[in-house]
Amino acid sequence: MNDEKKGKSVMDQIRIKGLRIYARHGVFEEERKLGQSFIVDAVLNTRLQEAGEKDDLNLSTDYGAVCEKITQVMTEETCLLIEAAAERTAREILLSFPAVESLELTLHKPQAPIPLPFEDAAVRIRRGWHTAYVALGSNLGDREALLKMGIDGVNAHPFCRVEETAPVYTTTPYGGVEQGEFLNTVMKVRTLLEPEPLLDLLQSLEQEAGRERKVHWGPRTLDLDLLFYEDRILTSPRLIVPHPDMENRDFVLKPLCDIAPGLVHPVSRRTVIALLRELEKNGEVHVTAKRM
Known about the structure:
Blueprint: H1 3-6, E1 12-23, H2 29-34, E2 36-46, H3 49-54, H4 63-76, H5 82-96, E3 102-108, E4 122-128, E5 130-138, H6 143-156, E6 160-165, E7 168-171, E8 182-191, H7 195-208, E9 223-229, E10 234-235, E11 240-241, H8 250-259, H9 272-282, E12 287-291
Antiparallel strand pairs: 1-2, 2-3, 3-4, 5-8, 5-9, 6-8, 7-8, 7-12, 10-11
Helix pairs in contact: 4-5, 6-7, 8-9
């Protein structure tokens, strides 16, 4: 189903077709030594209305600079596979041109060593930025410093940008384990990582903070939970998204509502503000104060 049928806005596009580059990618040593011609097509999904209305290149993406970046990436490193060359090229475009939300990149290898008549060999990939929401909690050690460590750790990853953080709340423990009060907040993350690599990053930051998983729902130095990843519904042995228990946690819903009250839960199809209001009316309440 395309974006128009889903009701999503369709983005504008900048299209680059037939960019020819001489580079040295290939499985065979001769290809890497002698090189050959590659052709790149790119479709950049972005927003162009303001640039068009104001006639201002600074509000758009300079496609000449994009072509230079593609050429640079394709020629500065050697890959065995054109899949790898395409992946690196797409990633560098997204990192270098902030207005590009996503892209489709086709890398052609018309002189591929195929001992049969053929016109072209190519790979096509689609990559883009994703929006995720991550809950943070701490009730051991310097709680505020540990929350900041989690936020800064995500933001320091080259494929992540923390776009917004909610206020911090003081909360009583959840789950029946006697322990100290928590500090909780939520952050909005823009990321090129897929869900499981993002989970790997979150768990590595928990380990750096000295988290020990000895008691279920027990005390922890730093807890990082992936709440939403776009509108995806995922179930694997390691990860369930959306977070399966968030509707019972006001210490998650309250800070989440501070930055995204209209966010729709893809399973229940209810907004997070509606989930919070129902929980405050009928469920357990753990938030005790907002820390300014």
